[in-house]
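Co-fold these.
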Amino acid sequence: MRGHRDLRIAAALALVCALLAPLLPVEALSLLFALPLAFFLPGYALAAATFARRPIERPQLLLLSLGLSLCVLALGALLLNYVPGGIGPVSWAILLVLVVLNGCRVAALRRPKARAGGSGPSRPKRRLSATAVGPLLGALLCTTAALAITFTTRAAEHADGYTALWLLPPAPKDATVGGARVGVNSEEQKPAEYRLVVRVAGRDEIIRNFSLDPGETHVLKLGPPEAASASPVAVRALLFRRNKDGDVYRRVSGWLAEPEPSR
Amino acid sequence: MSEPVIQDGPRVRMSHSRFGPGHLPAIALASGVGLLLCALANALARSTDGNPMLLYWLGVLLIAAPVFYRLTSAEASPAERLTLVCLLGLSLYGVKVLRDAPLFTFSDELVHAFNANQIADHHHLFEANSILKATPYYPGLEGATSSLMTITGLSSYGAGMIVVGAARLTLIGALCLLFLRVGGSARVAGLAAAIYTCNFNFLFWGAQFSYESLALPLLVLLMMALAERETVRREALRAWAVPVVLAIAAVLVTHHLTSYATVAVLLALSLAYWYVKRSWKSPNPWRFAIFAAVLAAAWLLIVASSTIGYLSPVLSGAVKAIFNTLSGEAPPRQLFQKGNSAVGVTPFAARAVAVLAIGLLFAGLPFGLRELWRRHRKQPFAIVFGLAAIAFFATLALRLAPAAWETGNRLSEFLFVGLAFVLAYAVLAAMRHWSSRPRLARGLLAAAISLALIGDAISGWPWDAQLSRPLKVSAKGGTIVSPPLAMAEWAAHDIVRGRFAAPTADANLLLVPGNKSVLAGPYPDVEDILEDPDLGSWQLPLLRRHKLRYVVSDLRPASSDGIRGYFFSTGGSDEGRLPRGVTAKFEGVPGVARIYSNGPITVFDLKGQR
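Predicted complex below.
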């Protein structure tokens, strides 16, 4: 690729992006390197190889760089589906780098010497005037503000808050113990106080009084049935809102799980 | 390896040497302010504070109107025009992003996001999707999204948003260059590409994370490559075949309907070439048409055969609905209808704007066609565009047939490519007619195009769903989420295995973020089970047959609505809820556990019933 500056830059950039994008732990930084690798360089390399002998105009080149990159991404997954390991960060990075390097190599071989040094005729450098920079910066600022507003969770006074009550067998890690879990999730607008009444086998009654802030969860763990029985042990949980009328607010029902044999 | 550089004949160039930013900075600022207004309007809507609809439309107008006005001028350079339409396309995509963040909330988006998550999790394509079985077999969009997801660790939402953004840029850029080659005028190209944003689906439906949002831009890229190919010397024909073939292949693995549209476009162009030039020799694209047809048929029969079962009820239903409506057996569909209590009313003014917009498009058609005939009747692309423009108005009639409106709506996105080109000539004809008062003419025409954009956006997307609704809400230092989202997050966290039966909106959220296998809708008839207050004898056997362990019963009428069913209710009203029997009927079934309840939504576990 000697003498073809654009191709050398594209190949080097692809390698750097492919190395850094999967390794960087911060998504935003990783994205900075992944974007050119996925959305520009493969298409650019393919367009450079295809139109090595007949230069195309810059808008067409830029559009093909983006559009053919999308084609490579859409078709690339199909290809990677059949390679060992399948679709993953490493296979994607390798595929995209291979497309770029091969495209650049073919372009370098096919390009007439008269065009060495760039993809097209040299163009006069253009600078934005100060009067143009101001509005463009303003536009950038407004767009950033719009995104910040959008991605900020806001209060919604009239949204109807509620509380969820659930009853499930123990989490998989506690399956060997058996029993059940009763959970209360507050999705209320304000802190709320509750009374939870759990009846096991219609007899034993467990009562818990507690309060939850919005977004908080309270989980009550129930032990396994005391003795192995032929029929499952029923559980019924009733949730009341304290300081409200005495009506049942939520109810769930199920069974105590027998301890599972450890594996 | 030294070969002479082959230069093609003289052509209109977008990379004009007379480049200056022109009015671009000021228009970019207007777009930025417009986006900010849209963000504020959506924030107010999410906060359930007042009705910020006017603020929202003002924002859309600020984004679009200055671009339309500038594009009508004769002074703007070709490069400025291209940059302006790209700015317009991306800014209007921004309107959609600002509405939905930080989660996908369109029905199809959650289906495709699930597929993308499956690819990232399992490292392979074609993992099953229980809601739309055909979608995993067209993995182009999700495959592309998986590249960003796996390399950067982004969620399917973040990665999908970027992929669709890149596709939107490709769409609008390719349209501009396509129209430039066909029309030979940068002014026509810029105007036509800008007018394309007035199609019913540009603002929302076409910008969602769904396979057509990638496939359509690739089809337009393919058309652009064909148009470029038309203008080059014979030796360069082969070079342009590379992007054409790549685009055809990429469309085929991305979306079924667009792949058939690709075949149709290529066939139409081949016939138009033959009609004009009486020759099948290149650049007549008939070989590409055959290639695309064979590939599409092979993909359908070998890989994606489930698509037949998915599309045939939709298409046959559409045909049947047309006949029923025409014969008077069924009443015509009411426009702007209010389907159930969850659907808001479209105000009279909005309806009037929508009807006026279509009237404006129709009024421009004869003038545009006359200009097209006068200037380009020997051009195959122009002939196809002219026919598409006429066909667009024919498909509007499909909106009156209840089961055919969706087919008509989908077709409009494709046919509008032709209509936009034709209408650009109508705009030029109007400018010529009012040449004595050019500024007034430009202002009026920019206003008319802006009105078409807003009116068609109202026609294409429900009025009450133009703005965001509360999904995640900040409350006393914590964050609370809507009832269906809370149920889906609970299922994601606490339910390890087992399939769900759920109404559409709940089912979509059970896909993402729930990551569950779920059935909804009429095939199999889960829909009736979940809406019927009585437990019919067929219902439990059907649930058992499809191994549906969990049943989500939702009393909200919006739960069956893939657009409105994801959000908080407001104002504490239970009005319009489904009958209690919808939930109560499962309570009496022996062995059924009621394992989750958040008010409107109850989840039953049928395991013990088996």
